[in-house]
Specification:
The protein contains 3 helices and 2 strands, in the order ααββα. The chain has 112 residues and is α+β, with helices and mostly antiparallel strands. The chain has a domain of 46 residues. It has a two-stranded antiparallel sheet. The longest helix has 10 residues. The protein is globular, with a radius of gyration of 14 Å. The two termini are 15 Å apart. Pfam families: GSHPx. This is Glutathione peroxidase.
Length: 112
């Protein structure tokens, strides 16, 4: 399990900017993620990741690792790997499986 690596944390930020996939309240989103998807990591309040109201965190992440062709987040489940110093190491497409990132995480943590 990826979030069992010592020194590694998964953080989730729901967003409703992609085909309105997160229309619920923060409480409803939390309930769905924890019961239906068995999320065992922090799920923050819903934010915007693109546009003029994009959360400062996502403005930073996108400025550090732009996407293919455009910097905007194209779909939910875009992933960023950030080191202990806060530097964005890599950006992964929405369809990238968390298991495909495992070796990059191990390398970053020095446990490969």
């Amino acid at each position: 399990m990826l979030n069992s690596f010592s020194g590694f944390e998964i953080l989730a930020f729901p967003c409703n900017q992609f085909a309105w996939q997160e229309p619920g309240t923060n409480e409803e989103i939390q309930e769905t993620a924890c019961t239906r998807f068995k999320a065992e990591f922090p799920i923050f309040d819903k934010i915007e990741v693109n546009g003029k109201n994009a959360a400062p965190l996502y403005k930073f992440l996108k400025s550090e690792k732009g996407g293919l062709f455009v910097d905007a987040i194209k779909w939910n489940f875009t992933k960023f790997l950030v080191n202990r110093e806060g530097k964005v190491v890599e950006r992964y497409a929405p369809r990238t499986s968390p298991l495909q990132i495992e070796e990059d995480i191990k390398k970053l943590l020095g446990s490969s």
